[in-house]
């Protein structure tokens, strides 16, 4: 079943080349076998043949407090084959980046830890520097922009949203554009499944978000436990959809009930964060002079860590 995931991240100075190597599975990541496709675009002349030079220059010459890249991480539908997924990603890149920014993207397709199926997703990494047609050296490219004499300064940088409210709205609109593009390609290839960029709360669905299991934790599960999780996920998703169809969103009792449930989930989340912070403080306080952790001291303070 197609699932929604889109996250936006920024990388600081010194992070770009390592992250580009990670997503394209190069250098120390070359032994990973889940790379489906990698592509680069809009690179300046000095990086067209070696895109890694661009990200290396960003790390070296970008301002100390500047970001070297912006990244979209998106889940891709299993229902599409590799060629169709590539078509979808390229279409989204064309829509969001066009010819304005240098970019690198990669599609990964690892094996899902629970059901063993495909888990395709894309990393789209872009520079915030705008291509203006002026040729610059690597060092000048990342200098501060000179509005009066553009050729004397660096490439202009896209300004981030001015306020948190505007940033939130920009992200919401980006999520909606990915939803529309994803569903357009699914329909084009004969699939009725759609994704929805809204939160469970905004969709009126009362259930907890699905728990993610990494390969390490999933490896400790028995086949029976994995099957139980798969069954539970399928049931909860189907039940949530049917639930949403049957809800009267004007019912005051339902509005009151959903409000109470959300408050309870927020309380649980807050308590979990408090416990995690307290655990971190205890672990820090329990380092012995030799540099070892005093496990008994942590246990005696009333926290169980699964030992």
From TrEMBL:
Keywords: Conjugation. Residues 148-167 are annotated as: Disordered. Residues 149-159 have a biased composition (Basic and acidic residues). Residues 28-217 form the MobA/MobL protein domain. Pfam families: MobA_MobL. The keyword Ligase does not apply. InterPro entries: MobA_MobL. Belongs to the MobA/MobL family. This is Putative plasmid mobilisation protein. It comes from Citrobacter koseri (Citrobacter diversus).
């Amino acid at each position: 079943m197609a699932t929604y995931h889109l996250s936006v991240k920024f990388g600081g100075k010194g992070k770009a080349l390592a992250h580009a190597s990670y997503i394209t599975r190069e250098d120390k990541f070359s032994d990973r076998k889940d790379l489906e496709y990698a592509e680069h675009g809009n690179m300046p002349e000095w990086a067209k043949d070696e895109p890694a030079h661009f990200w290396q220059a960003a790390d070296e010459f970008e301002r100390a407090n500047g970001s070297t890249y912006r990244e979209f991480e998106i889940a891709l539908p299993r229902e599409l084959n590799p060629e169709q997924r590539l078509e979808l990603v390229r279409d989204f890149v064309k829509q969001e980046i066009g010819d304005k920014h240098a970019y690198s993207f990669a599609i990964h397709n690892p094996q899902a830890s629970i059901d063993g199926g495909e888990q395709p997703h894309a990393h789209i990494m872009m520079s915030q520097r705008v291509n203006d047609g002026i040729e610059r050296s690597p060092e000048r490219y990342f200098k501060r922009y000179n509005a009066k004499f553009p050729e004397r300064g660096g490439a202009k940088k896209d300004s981030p949203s001015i306020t948190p409210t505007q940033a939130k709205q920009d992200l919401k609109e980006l999520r909606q554009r990915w939803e529309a593009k994803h569903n357009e390609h699914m329909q084009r290839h004969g699939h009725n499944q759609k994704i929805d960029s809204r939160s469970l709360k905004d969709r009126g669905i009362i259930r907890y978000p699905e728990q993610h299991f990494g390969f390490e934790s999933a490896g400790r599960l028995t086949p029976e436990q994995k099957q139980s999780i798969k069954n539970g996920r399928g049931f909860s998703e189907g039940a949530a959809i049917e639930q949403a169809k049957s809800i009267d969103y004007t019912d005051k009792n339902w509005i009151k009930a959903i409000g109470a449930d959300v408050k309870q989930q927020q309380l649980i989340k807050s308590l979990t964060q408090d416990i995690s912070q307290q655990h971190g403080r205890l672990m820090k306080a329990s380092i012995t002079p030799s540099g070892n952790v005093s496990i008994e001291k942590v246990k005696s303070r009333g926290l169980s860590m699964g030992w």
